[in-house]
Specification:
The chain is α/β, with parallel strands linked by helices and 164 residues long. Helix content is 35%, strand content 25%. It has one domain (10-159): Vaccinia Virus protein VP39 (Rossmann fold, 3-Layer(aba) Sandwich). The protein has helices at residues 10-33, 51-60, 73-85, 122-131, and strands at 41-45, 65-70, 91-95, 107-113, 133-142, 145-147, 150-152, 162-163. The protein is globular, with a radius of gyration of 15 Å. It binds S-adenosylmethionine (SAM).
Length: 164
């Protein structure tokens, strides 16, 4: 079954990176507002070419750790190469279906960007997200808001904090 309708051609990976440059200020603010701080442990679900994971890795610094999970082997290889080129030693990329992966319950934050919107069963991904978290850890999804045929982008974006 296709898990990402746009696929992972070089062209699409480049598009994701360009999109990530544009979204960076919004995602940075989301991560700050949710409480991301140096030394924290983070999981990025549906990491694609690794942009959110790399942003989080920058924010948690060398004493923190980030794991990016993605279903595409090509995208994961690209993410690994980018992290290596950027000298990020505090980041790891794992290939797999994030909806079916169980975490160790030791992370401070699970993040995902533009991944829930594609899921026929978003609840399964959120349930899986919760397994990565320590008690009082947080989940932050950066998604589009779909209402009927209209797409809304409201700024300033509100951050909703869910604690599990
Ligand atoms: C729109 S891209 C966004 C990538 C990245 N989060 C970003 O913002 O640049 C969505 C990614 O989620 C991945 N994905 C979708 N369902 C997934 C799942 N169940 N487990 C892991 N990755 C998944 C797709 O393979 C794709 O790379």
């Amino acid at each position: 079954m296709q898990h990402y309708v746009l696929g992972h051609s070089n062209r699409e990976l480049r598009r994701l990176m360009l999109q990530a440059d544009n979204l960076r200020p919004i995602t940075t603010r989301l991560l700050r507002e949710i409480g991301l701080a140096r030394g924290m442990r983070v999981v990025d679900l549906g990491c694609g070419a690794g942009d959110v994971a790399m942003l989080a890795a920058e924010m948690v610094g060398p004493t923190g750790a980030v794991v990016g999970i993605g279903r595409s082997a090509v995208a994961i290889a690209t993410a690994r190469e980018r992290a290596r080129a950027a000298g990020r030693a505090n980041i790891e990329f794992v290939e797999g279906n994030a909806s079916e992966m169980t975490g160790a319950g030791n992370c401070d934050l699970v993040v995902g960007r533009y991944v829930l919107v594609q899921k026929s069963d978003p609840v399964a991904l959120i349930r899986a997200a919760a397994t990565h978290l320590r008690p009082s850890g947080a989940v932050a999804f950066h998604e589009v808001f779909l209402l009927g045929t209209w797409w809304f982008c409201r700024f300033p974006m509100k951050t909703m904090r869910y604690v599990v």
